[in-house]
Amino acid sequence: MRLVAAMAAIALLLLAGPLTGAARAATPALGAPAEAPVSGSPLTLVLEQVTPRLVTADGPETITVAGTLVNNGPVAVDEIEIRLQRGDELRTEGEIRTAIEGSAAADAVTPQFTDLPGVLVPGEHIPVRFTMPLRGDPGTGLALSQPGVYELLVNVNGMPAGGARARLAAVRMLLPVLSLPPDPAAGASLGSASTRTPTTPFTLLYPIADAPRRLPGVPGEITTLTDDDLADSFAPGGRLNGLVAALAQRAPVGSRVREATCLAVDPDLVQTAAAMRDGYQVRAPDGTRTPGRGAAAAGSWLDALAATARGSCVLALPMADADLVALTRGGLTERAAQAVTDGRELLTEALGTPVLDGTLWPVDGLLDEPTLAAVGTTSAASTSTFVLSAEGIERSRTTTTTGVVRIAAAQPGETAVLIDPLLNRAAVEHAGPGSARDSDSETGAVPTTSTAAGTSTPLSTQDIIGALLFRAQQGPRADASGPLVLAPPHQWAADGTGADALLSAVSRMLDETLLQPRALATGVATGPAAASGSRRLFYPVRAGAREIPPAVIDRVRTVGDEVERLRGAAEIEPGVGVSPAEVFDPVMRATLRATSAAWRGYPDLAERSMTLISDRIGELRSSVRVLEPPGPYSLGTNEAPLLLTVANGLPVAMKVRVELRSTAGLKVAPIPQQRVPPLGRIQVRVNAEVTRSGQFAVDATVRTPDGGALGPPTRLQVRSTAYGTITVWLTGVAGVLLVVLVVRRMLRRDHRKGGAPAPSRLRPVEPDPGGGAPRPAASDPSRPTRPGPGPAAPPRVPTQRP
Q: In angstroms, rounded to a whole number, what is the distance separating the alpha carbons of residues 609 and 604?
């Protein structure tokens, strides 16, 4: 029996394998989330429409599903059929969580399959659209009988070539039922659930953010982006355009939905849009630059956002949505506080409307105590209220999901407004790169789940609507001192269609008095209950594993030091309206883009972003340099000056030190500090002494007054035709030696003239002892013997001429 049970379980697992849906894959480009098909499944179902998103008594009596079925596999699939099926009503928070994760049963009602005609060959796709009654018989409809929240499954079966029939694709979602339309058989409808539950105070945080794409620049320079995805997102039909349009249409100023809503905006995104409207360029990976195509769309979007935000609650995210905890752990506490203060100031200026001061919503709603101290009331950020996840507060005897609590180990008056963790879980299922959903809360593994958002962005808010209705039907907690807070993650993947569906559902629940609008500022002003105690912060281990890597934080520190060196060398140029702060403050803020929450859980993207930023700042630093002359310097004397040209590509005057280094051939006098005008150049006269003739190389570098490197070394070629010191010295020594030798020769000659004559080489003549004629002396045995003379020749008598 055990063997039979095991074989049956294995068979069920094999059949249920395709239910795992689309697993989140690694992001191939900055800010572009990617979805992968189910491993081993040839088909992928992409849903684009589900109507209605919230079932109501005055809504349609049927549910309609539309989308596309794609064959991504290597074989054709035949006998394809599709159906909708559902599970029982989800009555507990645990059942809702299980359904959101994609592991709940959805086989309580399983109507008949509907055939899809034709064979789907590899690479092809077919449209899918079918309708089913919400009530009615279980064989032909969903057979809903009461309000609640249900697990809905779109199930696709088929027969791959050479295989057996199996479930090849599936998409799951929550189906919220506020009330039911009339039953055709009974002729009556179930009323709204609003009469059965008390009203729950409700606050919605509406994030408008995106992955940073702007490279550092200086005033007067054309804006440069890493890609042109924002052009599509800002345009009609794009994600960011849809978020603003949905808010303007479904939650106009003065409506109950807008009263409950607070916009949470990334200041860096708004600044990027403002820069794009004046024209920009896109830098390709190979360094080439092309004109951007979204200037008009960015300007229109920014105007629409400013108009929509006017008169509303606006909350500024940290600059570039920076990971404050990672910055603090890396020792950059001042940078973390500056990210908060700069974000508030810049967003207020860009939108022309005040932002909620003293309130901070960190990424994932999580903080540790050192970060709290860095951005709290004792710091420059001056924050007294934090919007935190209920999972980021230590647990007490009772589970807390809503309310306003005092924070322990903090300054008096610092409080936290709690985000409902169930609503947050439903929202992060559909977040972009870096969201908490990318790592399982227990194991840290990347789970596979066939959520609606996993295959289609338009359905990305469906689970949020279901979880919100579940909470609203439960009613307010008796011990809650604050509102029920729905706060999707900062990097929310919802588009205009998904946002429109969520806001419409919220509006309907407000109209049905299931929810009551509560502005975030009201909850902040009300504060915690008088009798409530303080709670300590809790920072989950899984959150630390997803932080921006320490290596990236170290590079942020290094690059920041380089920017500060540039700032220290800069001066205000009289008559020029650009100050060092206007030049280098934006560059310093740009380094925070590498710490954006968009890269949490994606260390490779964080590293890539930091590399792009570092390279760009290196280009700005290298714009202050010695220009290479068109040809070599020719020096005709041993003390000839060199004229160097120092250029400054920054729009601010720079104090620099010029250094010349040569292995041999040139000695340089100390060069005084120079001042180079903004976007200008100067000539520096360098006093140099040539130590040898010939051609040799000299390296010229430019540094800040404190020794920081600016532009790269410039190689100068020097050709000398003058005699250097060493050459002259050698020539002089040679001349002295020549004189000494001449004098010596002359002295020897004079000595010979004034002394005894030198011995003759002729043989001496000795007198003949016999009184005869003298004869040669005896031969010297050391000399060679010569033959003696012959007989004397008779004397020659001259002939006398007549």
A: 9
